[in-house]
User: What shape does this take?
Amino acid sequence: MTQLIALNKPYGVLCQFTDRDGRATLGDYIDIPGVYAAGRLDRDSEGLVLLTDDGRLQQRISNPRHKYWKTYLVQVEGEPEEPALQGLRHGIKLRDGLTRPARVRRIEEPAWLWPRHPPVRYRARIPTSWLEISLREGRNRQVRRMTAAIGHPTLRLIRTAIGGIHLNDLQPGAWRHENPARLAKPGHP
Assistant: This one.
């Protein structure tokens, strides 16, 4: 039977199982043989990572051709104006080409959000704001590059959903088994 695991990857953890330099990895949180990450989150990003022992499922989750929405909470420097957000919604020109349209909306900082360790650097003269961004592609550091392209660098990035699988109340470092059929459910509220 196919295993699918949802992990809330903490900040500072590499999205792999070993590291020659002794940094924190998925292996510090998951001790289930034969499962591998389906996609990645950078070391400085947090949130939902799916792991599976099924190579086909891993490819389906990772490949943008299957068009699973991936949703992120993004704390950015400054307060983006509506024209900048519209740019994200229509597609932003990056070095590797135009992005697909994204779903973007302003949100308040979620009350349920756990503190990050170490915390995001606070600067009294520079406000921050929160966005919810959903994408159907997964270029390297794409969300960070998109927000930088509109002049609002990402300070904190948390993936909250892949397809119909959501982080919900899963705390950093915790994991649970998931039903692969839930992936096909709508990935955006």
